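User: Show me an example of a complex going from sequences to structure tokens.

Assistant: Sure. Here are the input components:
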Amino acid sequence: MLPEIAKLGHIALITPDLKKSLWFFSEVLGLEETEVVNGTHYLRAWGDFEHHTLSLTQGEKSKVNHIAWRTKRPEDVEKYAELLTKAGTDVKWVEAGEEAGQGRAIRFKLPSEHTFELYFEMEKTQPGQDRKAVLKNQTYKAWRKGTSPRRIDHVNLTTSLDASIIHNYLIENLGFKMREYIDLGDGNIHAGWLSVTPLVHDIAVGIEHDAPTPNRLNHLAYWFDNAQDILRAADILSEEGIEFVGPGKHGISQAVYLYVKDPGSGHRVELFSNSYLIFEPDWEPIKWTPEDLRVGITYWGQDAHEISVDSTEA
Amino acid sequence: MLPEIAKLGHIALITPDLKKSLWFFSEVLGLEETEVVNGTHYLRAWGDFEHHTLSLTQGEKSKVNHIAWRTKRPEDVEKYAELLTKAGTDVKWVEAGEEAGQGRAIRFKLPSEHTFELYFEMEKTQPGQDRKAVLKNQTYKAWRKGTSPRRIDHVNLTTSLDASIIHNYLIENLGFKMREYIDLGDGNIHAGWLSVTPLVHDIAVGIEHDAPTPNRLNHLAYWFDNAQDILRAADILSEEGIEFVGPGKHGISQAVYLYVKDPGSGHRVELFSNSYLIFEPDWEPIKWTPEDLRVGITYWGQDAHEISVDSTEA
Amino acid sequence: MLPEIAKLGHIALITPDLKKSLWFFSEVLGLEETEVVNGTHYLRAWGDFEHHTLSLTQGEKSKVNHIAWRTKRPEDVEKYAELLTKAGTDVKWVEAGEEAGQGRAIRFKLPSEHTFELYFEMEKTQPGQDRKAVLKNQTYKAWRKGTSPRRIDHVNLTTSLDASIIHNYLIENLGFKMREYIDLGDGNIHAGWLSVTPLVHDIAVGIEHDAPTPNRLNHLAYWFDNAQDILRAADILSEEGIEFVGPGKHGISQAVYLYVKDPGSGHRVELFSNSYLIFEPDWEPIKWTPEDLRVGITYWGQDAHEISVDSTEA
Amino acid sequence: MLPEIAKLGHIALITPDLKKSLWFFSEVLGLEETEVVNGTHYLRAWGDFEHHTLSLTQGEKSKVNHIAWRTKRPEDVEKYAELLTKAGTDVKWVEAGEEAGQGRAIRFKLPSEHTFELYFEMEKTQPGQDRKAVLKNQTYKAWRKGTSPRRIDHVNLTTSLDASIIHNYLIENLGFKMREYIDLGDGNIHAGWLSVTPLVHDIAVGIEHDAPTPNRLNHLAYWFDNAQDILRAADILSEEGIEFVGPGKHGISQAVYLYVKDPGSGHRVELFSNSYLIFEPDWEPIKWTPEDLRVGITYWGQDAHEISVDSTEA
């Protein structure tokens, strides 16, 4: 049986201004801190079930350390290690505990140099009594602070390479399915939205022609239950004096969005709501062409077009 | 490779007052009609991708004809036929076209006498130009009429039998996973919420001790993008003079709900929003006990407890 | 020119458990504290423009000290003193500064023994820089904590007397207009909703036959911009383990509501949204009769009927 | 006693494409038609209490025929006629019935040539039984079609003259109060928001330097109960292929907005929600300066700046 990826796990960010990034992610966005180990802060949203979905570590410059995916079965990590090695990918093992809460994992680079991590074991850390939800199926009490998203949603990468190479790598080696894509008719797939779950995308990968490095992070996204939560987030960000793009609605993915940069690291976060789920097993990827690209990028609201080519190093 | 179920497909309802049921589902709920074939009306929500998620047929008395599930692969229907037969279940074939839009399918009964259908092939019928969405990833324009849900969500069954028997049948024969359940400590699992998708439940099965038949439908559910859409639905139903229970929020599934009966057939529909998704591959089913059952049933809002034992024949 | 009342000013509450009441109003509801003077805590919502709209003082038992109304003009306080005295009402002066922020005021009792206060002068106290809104037309940053209502809305009183006596007193002596009322056809006006502003009611007064005192507080209300804010409040209250009635929508006033008691004092607060405004100068009061009373009290949602006869001393 | 204006009554629009304008206002916006008299269509929102708040008449070119205000008392129309004449304004009488539903009225021009109408008498026309609300305090059932606003809100005018002249005329002759204004420090008041009600503005008047006529309509506005209704409107307009600006939130007035032009006439409509109410009798007008103008115009969302100088003839 082939190994499978269950879900996006977490994104490990390096920030040159940890204090400011912590203020942004904890107080403004409203993530909860699971624990701090060796200077790395492990964060998650109130509805995330894993030990962390984001980590912040002080570093010389802003960077993505790795993007982690949880496998479906414990043995899938080992299986992926074998398959990827066989496919010519250089695989490195990360020992259990090297990352707080996490068991043995592997790391490797996409053809675009983005670092991926695959793991299965993760400690089921519970919040303290004062923050723990009354609801048995929810981690923390919601609405404790900041914009208060429910859970991590997806990651959006860009590369100076041909995006199709990355799409194909994700599809062939990791089991992703293409859900929607932009085909400008010039022989390139400009961008693709892919998932292993019924979410429209767990990951998107697009071309960013003039990027200084091949491995770029356009944004990571946290999910909100209601579109109006995005408007509330807009109020909160405005009062904190933090600029953002949105609110708006993408045609692609049908997401109600708002894009904001962590003022500590410059990494961009999408506050994300609505969208749709794909349960159909014979889904035909939605193709967006030059004729309907405008609707695809910005169905309504503040235009999201310009941010598609503004990224940080991943 | 074992066959798998991809998703809940549709519910085929028999109504003694087709005209009133059509008014309710089309005009009040706001479902769209795909086509009418041999007196059966095939309906779906604006965001449903399949040919239909509900069908209405005139009959002597209110009943569920069958509950249909789509398989992951075309060959899974045949595979399920074999496995189920081997497991002692009586399997009947339904020829392609017998149900509009649908390919060859099988039907069989759960131990509780509920009729299930499994199919893979389904015509990809597009709406006419005036109702077709501008969005390429959406079937119909949204908000055209009535409460306007996005898509089918789940089905909730009750039985006079031991519910665990049905839970186990679903788990062992059809690949469902238990997500949440009520254990009153009396040796019975009172009710279970199960899914094949990351939805908390595609199906729930509970005990209804004094039910006149073992196969009961508690409700079927349609999903809305935002909790406020449920409040808007409450306005619309009130103005139509249709009684309902809710709005409220279940602890179990975290759903914001409103329950309303089709005045034509008496079948109950849940208007459903928010809730949460389960991506964790090692999910431990949430157990609700007598101590926390009140929060589980009604976290807030109009109590949903009484409706748990009021069902129609399935 | 006759004196006029401009608006509901504030409600001064006595609580036997100041600490718990402060936790409830400041942390759970999310009111801001302007200042503490002589043990009295002066609170207001983020969008209130006055020095305070609520005050909390420790006392032996739960009670309303007074309900204050701002006059349209400075001289109206003196004019009301004269007119009320002439009408046989006993008027007492409250000197400037006796209540923090407030100028010279009068106090008097309604025929039902509810204590009213009339004032005009009120200090325009600004919040500290960290809490001050970026928006120049808003007092505090919104969404800082708790349910976060925008402003005070109305007060709802009950009495063991004939409610019409109080309605007439408010209309004849204080310039209120009747907006909606319940006439059960037994010769009594069961309850009336009255206002000096375009709000459907700044005050409601209803009969509570078996009340131990003639002067009762059914509730005071704070206003939220959106119905969904009420659902968010329901989550917050549920997580704090505080019981409440709602959400629901009254026919009368068209308010989306949620009723919750301060666990420190037992005084009830309505979290209130939507509703409508009356700008018509020839408004004919809406009469609700036994035939439509159910819709009037609870258009939808958790029934608000039982709380109409459960009050605290005013 | 001086006459007073109670509220904005209606806007009478001339459209060169009546059919398209009717489609826009009736089907897309979702206004209800009270009646058609002599080719003029009289419309109102489901929560408007008057006979009409908008009228549409076919004409050679797009124009505002008049903007009507209801007086507080019947005799105020006559009193205004006298006072305005005395102040040098040319006043014309409009006989009862000349405009459907309306009693005797006067018309006159502001110094900017905008035509105002003042009336008191208006027929209380009820909707037919199928459209009438169950709620006794609401005119029509809500949510019947289109975006479905509750009521008319305000009108926004521009002029090539010094806006202060118009502000002063409104304040001195008609009793409006200044609520917020833009002072760019160049000796001009760029724009002012004024009201006779607790709404932040019933009318706004701004400078439009290069306007071809002195009397311009920037937009008229309809009000929605919830910010999310604005997002729903954005979906509906997008599916109809109608362009708009927004959603966004103004600092000035704190309105959540969306601006859309009637494709039949080019007249702009603001879909408007949230905002705040002013009950304080000693309100100090909020002054927006070059330093904070950006926040004043667009607190967040798609920039509304460009539309401030794009108007139709009034």
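The lines above are the inputs; the final block is the predicted structure for all four components together. Chain B has two domains: 5-119, 151-313.
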